[in-house]
């Protein structure tokens, strides 16, 4: 089933029509005699509303589709990883300069969402940042004493294809937010692409992703297949493949602003979505030692730095800070 060079994308299934997402499957070219290699993944828009959704388990379910399953049969799972994509686009671009520094690439949100491409914009913004720094050095404005705000960088970005391209596709992602969901989004995106983004309006994302989660009582639990260890896998054996590691005695990089919120708010209202949206099983609701209710256990050493909890925690109570250098996933070949 391996066709070197083949790239396949799907939208929708197993997601419902109101949840943005789809898959990518890359059949990698390998040297003669080497085992065939496929890189596959599943994107789930973090603006989903059902707290029972698990992005990891959606991916496992996706692999059971009759068209997809044969591709993986007889193969071995050799790697696993996860990260958040920056999907805000043009409407959400931050001021990309500050004293002594700039934001470039994905950290500034330069991903072209409909194309799922950001490498070119990351490279271009890095080049423009270097040009702006050089301008400051040549003009003598850069000093050792104080951080200069490299405003030239923002001006260069506005003139570059980075901003032009992001503006052109600005309405595609928010167009998935109507009651027509996936169908409305695909139809509008086709129209907007034909228009080259020249519509005289800009659609709004309509709010933060964490605010879109609905209370559990308004939603249906989602059925996922039990892992068979062949095509579908459990979370913890997948996380083991990330090689993630953190020094045991470092300060916690995942803390809670208020320890009572996870049980009272997240578990009480949303049925503990952090136990499902984290792709590394970091958050677990476990029984209290007293036998009276549950508490949230944070397995911070498993964290693979995807930043989903920072974005999707409905109470915005999780404080993710950068851990000590060297910690985190040790991806190989990803
Ligand atoms: C699944 C997936 C598929 C994609 N497919 C494509 C595609 O086909 N084509 C395309 O053009 N784009 C694609 N993209 C987007 C592309 O990967 C990004 O836009 C691009 O990598 C952004 O580059 P960057 O340098 O800004 O950030 P990154 O590539 O994310 O680099 C940031 C680096 O900083 C490191 N880092 C983070 N924190 C610290 C710290 N505290 N100290 C030191 N280092 C740190 C990270 O380990 C990482 O190496 C894809 C993204 C994903 C997730
Ligand atoms: S704890 Fe947060 S950042 Fe770490 S893997 Fe889980 S969701 Fe991602």
From TrEMBL:
Residues of the 4Fe-4S ferredoxin-type domain: 294-323
Record has Flavoprotein as a keyword: yes
Cofactor(s) needed: [4Fe-4S] cluster; FAD
Subcellular location: Mitochondrion inner membrane
This enzyme's EC code(s): 1.5.5.1
Record field: transmembrane: none
GO CC term, one of those recorded: mitochondrial inner membrane
Keyword Chaperone appears in the UniProt entry: no
Superkingdom of this protein's organism: Eukaryota
InterPro entries per the UniProt record, alphabetical: 4Fe4S_Fe-S-bd, ETF-QO, ETF-QO/FixC_UQ-bd, ETF-QO/FixX_C, FAD/NAD-bd_sf
Annotated catalysed reactions: a ubiquinone + reduced [electron-transfer flavoprotein] = a ubiquinol + oxidized [electron-transfer flavoprotein] + H(+)
Main location group: mitochondrion
Details of cofactor binding: Binds 1 [4Fe-4S] cluster.
Entry's Gene Ontology molecular function annotations: 4 iron, 4 sulfur cluster binding; electron-transferring-flavoprotein dehydrogenase activity; metal ion binding
Keyword line: Acetylation, Electron transport, FAD, Flavoprotein, Iron, Iron-sulfur, Membrane, Metal-binding, Mitochondrion, Mitochondrion inner membrane, Oxidoreductase, Phosphoprotein, Transit peptide, Transport, Ubiquinone
Top EC category: oxidoreductase
Assembly with partners or alone: Monomer.
PANTHER family in the cross-refs: ELECTRON TRANSFER FLAVOPROTEIN-UBIQUINONE OXIDOREDUCTASE, ELECTRON TRANSFER FLAVOPROTEIN-UBIQUINONE OXIDOREDUCTASE, MITOCHONDRIAL
Reported function: Accepts electrons from ETF and reduces ubiquinone.
Protein name: Electron transfer flavoprotein-ubiquinone oxidoreductase
Organism: Spodoptera frugiperda
């Amino acid at each position: 089933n391996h066709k070197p060079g083949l790239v396949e994308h799907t939208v929708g299934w197993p997601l419902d029509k109101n949840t943005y997402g789809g898959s990518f499957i890359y059949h990698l070219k390998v040297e003669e005699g080497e085992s065939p290699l496929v890189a596959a993944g599943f994107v789930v828009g973090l603006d989903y509303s059902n707290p029972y959704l698990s992005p990891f388990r959606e991916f496992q379910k996706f692999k059971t589709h009759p068209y997809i399953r044969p591709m993986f049969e007889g193969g071995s799972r050799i790697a696993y990883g996860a990260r958040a994509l920056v999907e805000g686009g043009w409407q959400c671009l931050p001021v990309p300069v500050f004293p002594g520094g700039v934001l470039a690439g994905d950290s500034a949100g330069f991903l072209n969402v409909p194309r799922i491409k950001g490498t070119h914009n990351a490279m271009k913004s890095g080049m423009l940042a270097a040009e702006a720094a050089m301008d400051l050095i040549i003009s003598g404005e850069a000093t050792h004493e104080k951080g200069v705000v490299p405003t030239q960088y923002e001006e260069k970005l506005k003139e570059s294809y980075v901003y032009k391209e992001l503006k052109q596709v600005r309405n595609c992602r928010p167009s998935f937010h109507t009651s027509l969901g996936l169908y409305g989004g695909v139809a509008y995106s086709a129209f907007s692409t034909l228009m080259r983004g020249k519509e005289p309006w800009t659609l709004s994302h309509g709010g933060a992703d964490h605010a879109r989660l609905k209370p559990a009582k308004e939603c249906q639990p989602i059925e996922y297949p039990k892992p068979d260890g062949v095509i579908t896998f459990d979370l913890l054996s997948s996380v083991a493949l990330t090689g993630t590691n953190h020094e045991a005695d470092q300060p916690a990089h995942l803390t809670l602003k208020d320890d009572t919120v996870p049980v009272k708010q997240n578990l009480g209202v949303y049925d503990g979505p952090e136990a499902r949206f984290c792709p590394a099983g970091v958050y677990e609701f476990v029984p209290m030692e007293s036998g009276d209710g549950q508490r949230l256990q944070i397995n911070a050493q498993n964290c693979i730095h995807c930043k989903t909890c920072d974005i999707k925690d409905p109470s915005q109570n999780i404080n993710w800070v950068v851990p000590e250098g060297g910690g985190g996933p040790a991806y190989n070949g990803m």
